[in-house]
Amino acid sequence: MSQTAVDHRKLREVALTSDEYMEIVSRLGREPNDVELGMVGVLWSEHCSYKSSKPLLRHLPTEGPRVLQGPGENAGAVDIGEGWAVVFKVESHNHPSAIEPYQGAATGVGGILRDVIAMGARPVALLDSLRFGPLPDSRHHFEGVVAGIGGYGNCVGVPTVGGEVYFDECYAGNPLVNAMCVGLVRTDQLKRARAGSAGNLLLLVGAQTGRDGIHGASFASLELDGATEERRPAVQVGNPFLEKCLLEACMELLDDPGVVAIQDLGAAGLTSSVAEVAAHSSAGARVDVARVARRELGMTAYEVMLSESQERMLIVVTPGSECRVADVFARWDLEASVIGEITADGQLVVVDALDEVARLPVKLLTAGAPVRTLYGRPPAEQSAIADLDQLIIEPPDLGAVLVRLMGSLNLGSRRPIFRRYDHMVGAATLVPPGADAAVLRVPGGRLGLAVTIDGNGRYCRLDPYAGGQIAVAEAARNLVATGARPVGVTDCLNFGNPERPEVYWQLQEVIDGISAACRAFGVPVVSGNVSLYNESEGRGAVDPTPVIGMVGLLADYDRRLDPGFKGDGDFALLVGETRNDLGGSEYLSVFHGDVGGRAPGIDLARERASQEFILAAAAAGLLRSAHDVAEGGMLVALAECCLLGGRGVHCGGLRPDEGVRLDAAFFGESQGRFVVSARPRLTPELQVLARRHHVELTLLGLTGGDAIQFDGQLRVGLAELRQVWENALLCT
Amino acid sequence: MKFGVVVFPGTWSDRDWGHVVKDVLGAELVYLWHKDRELYGVDCVVLPGGFSYGDYLRTGAIARFSPVMDSVASFAAQGGLVWGSCNGFQILCEAGLLPGALIRNQCLEFRCEWAHVRCDQPRTPYTWRLEREQVVRLPIAHGEGNYVADPETLQELERNGQVVFRYCDRHGRPTPEANPNGSMNNIAGIVNRRGNVLGMMPHPERCAEAELGGTDGLPLLRSVLGAATATLPPTPRSRLRGDPGR
Known about the structure:
Chain A is an alpha+beta fold. Chain A has 25 helices and 28 strands. Chain B has helices at about 15-25, 65-75, 85-95, 150-160, 220-230, and strands at about 1-5, 30-35, 45, 80-85, 100-105, 110-120, 135-140, 145-150, 165, 185-190, 195-200.
């Protein structure tokens, strides 16, 4: 092998190792030129190639009778009947948001929208999962990200219907911003990335190409450090107005037989999207960068191929259709230029007018990245994370604990956030943000679509395997609480540097946990994203944070449920079994200042039984409300039912089962539980159903009044509770 | 009855209006493309919500120059019904079809929520199915809904009974707390002198079906539906009774 002349600075710029460089040289049989090196570097980045996580991701169940498209496409697709498919995906935009919160978050939303549009689907909902360091210190990140999500989503006219946000010290240097988009498409209009036959033309449409975002994908695959500030140019700037026009123009093309594929230009820009369409059809492609419309003078071929300018799409059309398709974009005042064609030789050839500037096998780009074999080892402190439950002293005033929890950052009302997002545009939002999951109606029938996004990094740090299972169980519970049956999952895995054995071990365990839970619930993972290297100087890695986006189905949306109590004199009941699950709880963190302990236990069979019971009861019309018991435990869930329903609840004294502490009964985070309400006359039927499902059903009390009361144990007025709850995010 | 819903680049309530016009009201619908001048004989032009031209420069500032707006202006001058909601209201103000302007919300944030508004002028083609001072609950979704006008204009609007909707609490009191954006006199919607051009920030098309959380938009939509066939109700002239708001 020849002596390579490449220097390390250049390799660092494209985030490749020397070994990877040698691999390129050996496969090409020559040294790559700069353009080629840049193209390979960006596609071999972790962000694009999943080279570290791929072996683990194979464990996820991705198939099912409803699955129309699993992972490997722009987004996953699931058949929901009546001729409709739901298309969805979640993606991270963590690093850009750390550097430039507004644009980082905004372009995160823009990118995930285009992934769904590329499948031929009209986006109908956006959701976001956010993690920040505690306020007020992280207010800069928090405000910028929330404004960016609203700024983009509101302008594009897609409702932001759900999401979650948590604050923890571990995210202070590296916030997490995961955006999820859900779209609807007629099953016969579903589009996929493919090239079709040689001679098909490549149309680049939408925004002009500039120098923004070069090396964005590589940047996303490095740890944040002092030099990161200098990478600010790697963050792109979003133009939601252009995206809206692009969306409408693409929707007009769905019935055009000349349109072979629509492909998003996201990470790695033109290089990635051309390689992807060619790879899906084992074809090649020839691109002329001189024909790419630019917004800057003097751009090199390298810059054009690697630019991550936003709001662009690649359309593959049959020869002869290009003018018709370009006319559609012209009507929307958008650029459309033929920049190349599909070839049969399996090579991606880049020319700049007459000069050939790159020639690479498509396979080398899309499937060539050497899979990294990393190895995992539990961190040293993992075994020391002990059962703290016995060390905690029960507080005398449980009412005061409730008030403190409801006013805490992680449990306070999210209304100050979601009222800044248009969540009603589209006239389909039946259950708006603020419930366990949002419910949307599907046009032309009675089908309801429930959507949620959820995750808990603290549980995963304490026990990544259980944490992975809980993330799935919790998301499923959110959907089930609206009466919807889960049909598909998209996941975003936010972890630290996988080259460190402790992080890799966490990744292994979490993925195994997610797989086990998805199998138990029969829900396939149809799309997802991995975000590694979420570390910052001096703070280390974030907690392992898998975020689960999940979509569920209601056969008749009139049977939908939400958490708020509906009338006075109903029975408030607890579904599921309560144990001493104080470890990792918000109660422990807020009241005792401790984030340790043992993660809550999870029994997938019991979890499933609880969920099936709720679904059966909802379908039979036996419930008036349902709410998932999550962070903060039963009492917080009950308080939310009261606040959202505008009425209190009066309960007798709570008598926990043998061996269960009183504070654990109120604030412990045992899994598989719901707070529901039902008319008293229907309760016997509910009890029969519960027995049939082997689920514990406990009567808590009667709805009504203006306080939450447990005789002899606590009484808190709703007005006081509402005050602290609604101001939790505003006052810090 | 034929509704013409104008589509500018960046408009997004057009589909919601289309759904309500066709599927809820059962009326005829035609979309009017911003580059065309033809109005296809519609009885009511709707300027829907959205971010026309990305709201660049100022909300509605570019949209008013669209070719379709020339036709809309002549249509309005002939007494045709022109109904702007949200971005549509902003465009009507920019186009000079309504007085005043809409600036950034006082809280400096976008607001999407339900708002109570009081109908202070039921004698318009849009509101004749409402009672005077009837309180309705309508969704708002905007970042620039803060209505401002010079004192003379404001006085004239009040004197002529051109203030159609005012933000209020659920008892109908136009308090500062009930004002979501800082609008002068709690103004949520106004008509022109003649009463045929209405601009309002709330979204009636989002509350025409119970499953979406409310149906208070229906009396407005049905007023217009009836207005085309019935004789137009008298234009507002009478002074408003009661508190003109602060």
